[in-house]
Fold this protein.
Amino acid sequence: MAYDADVIVIGAGLAGLVATAELVDAGRSVIVLDQEPERSIGGQAHWSFGGLFLVDSPEQRRLRVKDSHDLALQDWLGTAGFDRPEDHWPRKWAEAYVDFAAGEKRAWLHGQGIRFFPVVGWAERGGYDATGHGNSVPRFHITWGTGPGVVAPFERRVRAGVAKGLVSFRFRHRVTGLGSTAGAVDTVTGETLEPSDAPRGTASSRTVTGAFALRAQAVIVTSGGIGGNHDLVRAQWPERLGTPPRKLLSGVPAHVDGLMLGIAEAAGAHHINGDRMWHYTEGIENWNPIWARHGIRILPGPSSLWLDARGKRLPVPLFPGFDTLGTLEHITRSGHEHTWFVLDRRIIGKEFALSGSEQNPDLTGKSVRDVLGRARADVPGPVKAFMDKGADFVVERDLGALVRGMNALTEEPLIDEAELRREITARDREITNPFTKDLQVTAVRGARKFLGDRLIRTAPPHRILDPEAGPLIAVRLNILTRKSLGGLETDLSSRVLTAAGDPLPGVYAAGEAAGFGGGGVHGYRSLEGTFLGGCIFSGRTAGRAAARALG
């Protein structure tokens, strides 16, 4: 029986586009399958802030950030906490990825046409010892053009492959099975769905209009993770992260359903580390949602007071931007599912950014004028829209009114005004003295020693209850689903492995479906800026390896 293409790529997200681009460069024919309409090409990457993890970059050096391969590997391994027998390949992928990030990654991306915003962000700061979780230095490089700017060069390469007759897109093709001939996977079966003009990210029809069966010498699975499937998220939720929340916001569209992972398992693939996941604790309901339960993540600077549902400050070092999963575990064990940021207008204007390409029109549109306008603004426009329209925001001139507004947003009034005033006043007293025992105040002062934070990400230390800094603002924070850290186990050639550790003939995997490489390159935690880069690195590896292996 003849082949329909050399390779079938399942998923038209970033990893799938990168893999396909590499196959095109090698002269291979490719069919790309995706259950969504064509306008959803690029997948989750389109919606992202465009952050990429780079080591010892020119952007870092210009800001006097001293970074190195050894420091980055120390941070990665301290964050990952690899401790399982099945972490063999994830650890090897981690070492390879840090080599890439400290080596050719930036130059290679630059050659694709990707450029970076000059100020490097400092995500996941940790707050433990030198060998523990977190980035020792700023490494979060924002792509000029955000997520669409990351997707664009690879989509261009694939579109060029279409023009050459090497690539065929098959949108509205939902895979339901993988079949084998003589022990090698070479057949992809599934259902065709009715055409849909649903806007990108919104739910598309699931009406079946037919069936398909396609054959190729190799199959690359790049179907993404499980973040849009809350039932699956809860089913895989680990005990170490406490009780799964009843209310979850979605940081990804509903079609990120994880179903392809089960299909690959049924064909013999080994799915590992399913209990490792990355969900955010600073989620807010989108006042202008695109998909169901659409949440946006606040990318906070370090100054907001982070309070539990009863108004008590979270323990050290659970400050904004320091330890995502440590904070998640604390929240889920607290008996309540929400927390609060309490801050003022001076802090929100300087320190709040919102994740997502659509929330950053200046960077996404590559407008220098608009970026300068954001820097000069009292409060950036997208943030001001949430202040005015967001269901999770309370804005008041005095603390009593703020507390009444906070209690009105919850099922029962848990915040006591006198207790909250005592908490804030105690913190404010520390600000007036160059000495302090408040480690968050120390962290804020330390952050401002980094030029990037001082310029655009960290407000000068001041009293939150200073009327000149007002009005006061409270933000109710929700748990927001985002990434799977586990996935299909792969070797360093992106070949999918069986439970016995042998390659599953004909099958490769990349991106989130492969845990961004190996079945879990991040281990238990992420350093941030590593998801898009993981899609790129593993997609490139899978495409090149499959091209070499074909007869």
